[in-house]
Amino acid sequence: MVKASFGGEYRDPASRPPTTTGIRKTGKPASESHVPAPTSDWVVVVPVKGTAGAKSRLGSGDNSALAIAIALDTVAAALATPGVSGVLVVTSEAASVVFDETEALVLIEDEPAGLSSAVELGVETASEMAAPGRGIAVLLGDLPALTPAELGAALEQARLHELAMVPDAEGTGTTLITAADGAAHNPAFGPGSAQLHRAAGYFLLDLPAESGLRMDADTRETLDALAGRLGSHSADLR
Predict the structure, then answer these.
(1) CB within 8 Å of 181: residues ≥ 6 apart
(2) 28 burial via Cβ count (<10 Å: 0-12, 13-18, 19+)
(3) By the 8 A CB rule, do 8 and 103 touch?
(4) Phi, psi of 33, deg, nearest 5
(5) End-to-end CA distance of the chain
(6) Domains of the chain with CATH codes
(7) Within 10 A of 144 (CB to CB), how many other CB atoms are there?
(8) Rounded to an integer, what distance in angstroms lies between the CA atom of residue 182 and that of residue 45?
(9) Which tens digits make up the pLDDT trace of 24-43?
(10) H or E element: which one contains 30?
(11) SS3 (DSSP) at 138
(12) Is the dihedral of CA 198, 46, 82, 133 positive or negative?
């Protein structure tokens, strides 16, 4: 695991990066001679708010511990997914320490400015990890029931499309967007993001409504409905 600050200046150069992902420890830009190839593996960007105001719809008070637990389960599922060559978590300094125990690459935003900023930083950094056949996926970090098999099935479909997306269970939000090798992301997370992503050219992937990849946990009711399917971190704090 390698920790980085905003802009890619790594704060812990002695740390060992993942040894099997091909992710550059230095974060240096990929060669300009990179030639896109059919997508065979993915770098997955997971933005994590990690502040006291995270997941306010889960109830009054500080929900940051539960939000981090949900993000940890999401990251764990991504790390265990076939075809994922690396996971890049974008978060705050305060929240970063909990991801140090995972095999994810951690990017710290010195001044977190919201989801769009975190996604932009993550995609920009992931682009520097380019390799023939490597696509970039953005996965929201609030999917406590996600399994590696579900994410793997979505990425297997996604490799056939330049841009692809997965909507949430309600069909209005977005939980995953992908860009195959050689394609450029145009993220539009926020209210009505499913429609915005479709308009931006993202292909709608065919996944069942009950898939853990579509079950973003915004409320206690959602968490209660997912009882028995939650990852271990979320289940401990629900």
Answers:
(1) 36, 37, 38, 39, 130, 132, 133, 134, 135
(2) exposed
(3) no
(4) -90, 5
(5) 28
(6) 3-9+35-237 (3.90.550.10)
(7) 29
(8) 17
(9) 333 344 556 678 899 999 99
(10) none
(11) strand
(12) positive
Helical ranges in 140-202 per DSSP H:
148-158, 193-199
Going from the C-alpha of 65 to that of each of 21, 61, 77, 90, the distances in angstroms are 29, 11, 19, 17
Rg (CA), the chain: 16
Q: What global pTM score does this model have?
A: 0.84
**7-10 contacts, C-beta under 8 A, 24 or more apart:** 8/107, 8/125, 8/128
- State which amino acid sits at residue 161: H
Q: Could you tell me the strand order of the sheet in which 41-47 lies? A: 3-4, 105-109, 84-92, 41-47, 134-139, 174-179, 163-167, 203-204
Tokens at 50, concatenated: 């990690």
Q: SS3 letters for 131-178?
A: CCCEEEEEECCCCCCCCHHHHHHHHHHHCCCCEEEEECCCCCCEEEEE
In the numeric block, which tokens belong to residue 75? 């990251």
| pLDDT tens, residue by residue, 186-212 | 999 999 999 999 999 999 998 998 999
